[in-house]
Amino acid sequence: MKTVFATFNFRSGDIAEGERLYLKNHVPLTLQLPNLRQYITGVIRPGPEPAPAHRAAFNYFDDAKALHWALHKSPQAKPLIKDGAAHLRVNHWLELDSDIIVPFTDRYPGLNCFVVAMEFELKLNEQDPEAAEQSYLDEHVAMVRDLPNLRHLMISKYQVIGMPRAAGLDNSIRLRNPLRMMMLVFNDFEQYRNAYESAIGQELKAREERTMTKVRVYNIDATVQL
Predict the structure, then answer these.
(1) In the chain, what are the domains?
(2) Helix or strand or coil: residue 115?
(3) How many CA atoms lie within 13 A of 49 on its CB side?
(4) Which of helix, strand or coil describes residue 168?
(5) pLDDT, averaged in runs of 10, over the chain (226 residues)
(6) Which of 8, 64, 78, 86 has its CA 20 to 30 A from that of 193?
(7) How many Å from the N-terminal Cα to the C-terminal Cα in the chain?
């Protein structure tokens, strides 16, 4: 599966008007895209630091070919791109190679939910990248899947093109240990908080500290569009 994760602000300083135009125009235009399988939008909550952007969106497609046709070649792409250029300022755009671990089967348009999108890189901890990957899949993902109240879980990878080689870092390691994203969906923020306060949630937090680096978390008050 191929997933687009985008964060953006409105070009207008009037947030209320930007919200109105986004929901009235941009969301319906996105829903017209061919091959779109799932679509979730939301407002990013500020944390201890200001939010990195106002809004975020997830668009799911079967594969890279379906995504490319929908967003670049289809007749529906042109009005969507035009509307985005007029009203949105995208500050983060990732095209992710994704696997759905827990399908969001009971979703419906208009459903409000809480999304945690976590970007990170695996700490190798003296392991080779393949061993770290296997540990992540066999142990970490399995623990996340067992969190109480979890409604949807997606894991993803993406390569950073053109990243300069860090001093002393073999670039082949970078390619074998790509940047990642994990997307978790709960009914609301309270259920998310309760999940991480559970015994398995506490164990998971400790594991995240041991095995993840360069972590960036987006907390999103979201709505299912498709």
Answers:
(1) 2-224 (3.30.70.100)
(2) strand
(3) 6
(4) coil
(5) 96 94 97 98 89 95 97 96 96 95 97 97 83 91 96 88 47 62 97 96 95 94 98
(6) 8
(7) 16
